[in-house]
Amino acid sequence: MNNVKTLGQFIIEKQADFPFAKGELSRLLRDLGIAAKIVNREVNKAGLVNMLGSAGSGNIQGENQQKLDVYANEQFIAALKHGGECCIVASEENEEIQYLDTDVSTDASYIVAIDPLDGSSNIDVNIAVGTIFSIFRKRSSSRATLDDVLQKGTCQVAAGYIIYGSSTMLVYTTGKGVNGFTLDPSIGEFCLSHPQMEIPANGKLISINEGNYVHFPEGVKNFIKYCQAEDLSTNRPFTSRYTGAMVADIHRILIKGGIFIYPATAAYRNGKLRLMYECNPMAMIVEQAGGKATDGHHRILDLEPQMLHQRTPVFIGSSELVIKAELMMEAADFVY
Ligand code: P6P
């Protein structure tokens, strides 16, 4: 029985990967794991504790905040503040960055960009939701500013997500591969269940909201037609799977292979998903697992952020499928 490795044990074990590490990042990751367990407890019984439905407020995205959105945001920020390793939190739920170190002498050196509850519209219908986080080191020698937050995805020191699904998993990377941990409620610990995750180079899953089809770029329409064409080698076209929660759709693709696409649409000319706390962290994870992530033309992790809540189109998943989709985007741009 005792071959179980908990998240805490794993983090400490892997600290040796970073010779100059003083344990700060390890403590930060553990702080996020604690908040995840607290949020999981409420997600799992939302219907019983009046945590369903709208909070009666809106967020910077202009989205109607769900009660669990607000709760998750509060819990992750509280855990990061209590842990003392994070100086700034950039949350999807807050218009401005939040300074956690009230005293400039506090030398917290990490910055966390977070989507506290991704896909929260799924809560009321009992479908998977998630949390996505991205971690940067502060660059300035003095008090951190917004410039310390607006770093390219290649500067992330760690990225991860929690999926509150049929089981609750925490998946993260520090740039040395991707590892998945499943929450064992009987001991209240995340336990290593998916070591060294690798995404298949190809796959037969496409995840896209085809409700927006008429407004898709031509290259995306052509790629969808490619996926729907009869595949003579296997006599079956692709399977379409879309839950409305990026974390759940990409987690499926990380395990089974395939491609998730949220392109530009009529409602979202620059795509809907946010660069800093959705696309960058998911791109780091998928690339670390051997996949690719682009905006249809450029690598997501190379995009230079200009604004905190900026959006980007995203094509992410199995490398061969992302390359295929990019080629179709380029061909269509050439024609039109
Ligand atoms: P649509 C959830 O609101 C989210 O940010 C992602 O998790 C998800 O992939 C996407 O938006 C769903 O958007 O327009 O298909 O409902």
From TrEMBL:
Protein name: Fructose-1,6-bisphosphatase class 1
Binding site for substrate: 118-121, 209, 242, 272
Binding site for Mg(2+) 1: 92, 115, 117
One GO MF term: fructose 1,6-bisphosphate 1-phosphatase activity
Family, similarity comment: Belongs to the FBPase class 1 family.
Subunit comment: Homotetramer.
Classification via SUPFAM superfamilies: Carbohydrate phosphatase
Assigned EC number: 3.1.3.11
Naturally occurring in which organism (per UniProt): Mucilaginibacter agri
